[in-house]
Specification:
- The chain is α/β, with parallel strands linked by helices.
- The protein has one domain: Hexapeptide repeat proteins (UDP N-Acetylglucosamine Acyltransferase, domain 1, 3 Solenoid), CATH 2.160.10.10.
- It is built from three helices and 27 strands.
- The chain has a nine-stranded mixed β-sheet with strand order 4-7-10-13-16-21-24-26-27. Strands 3-6-9-12-15-20-23 form a seven-stranded parallel β-sheet, with no helix packed on it.
- The longest helix is centred in the first third of the chain and has 14 residues.
- The termini are far apart.
Length: 263
Amino acid sequence: MARAGCTDFPMNSELNPPPARTPVEGLALYLSRQADSIGRYVLEQTLQALVGWVPTVVGMGLRAVLYRLMLTVNGSVAIESRVRLRFANHIRLGNGVYLDQGTYLHACPPGIEIGAGSFVMHGSILHVYNFRKLPQAGIRVGRDSLIGEYNVIRGQGGVTMGDRVYTSPMVQIVAVNHVFDDPRRPFAEQGITAKGIVIEDDVWIGSGAIITDGVTVGRGAVVAAGAVVAKDVPPHTVVGGVPARVLREIDGSARSDRGEVYF
């Protein structure tokens, strides 16, 4: 049995296709993917329709006040216009969190937590995507971290990111894998694995890198642009390539070719 949104429904089968849903059943399925209840759906959609589009600091001020009715905020936050929030009562934002325009947080339980001082930049998607109600699911971002533009973070297996983790544009962090062992069956009917991803403190992930399920990226590591990380990354190393391998250790030695450094 698989689940859509956060609700059970039968999977497609060539031999036993599911019966067509009535309009009422289709509406119920849609609502189950958007919020915990009809009441929550109405509240969240109404608030976002009223003030979610309002630009400039005026809109950010309105959202900073009114969005507290639907999500958990510890301190002051800045939420730009055109930010989409689903299952907002499972979103927890620390003091000083910034959500840029066009970001999308779908916090299907157990939810999304973003630590104090962290930024989520334009176009990024944080989606727990917990169709199967996996207990380890969720996305946790630590303090003073930066999620770069157009990142995709999928949290079925659970994604835990430490403090001061910086991701560059177009990074993908995907805590799920499909099973495809049986050539006689569609992969969509063979289930998934969801081991989870851990990214420890002080990690920098370069543009276009992909972190796959089951990986731990150690403290102080650097993942080069375009790398595909399919196994654990040791602390204080630079990894790159497809699949990623250790390129060098970060041992404190200065590089003569670096040029001027700005702070």
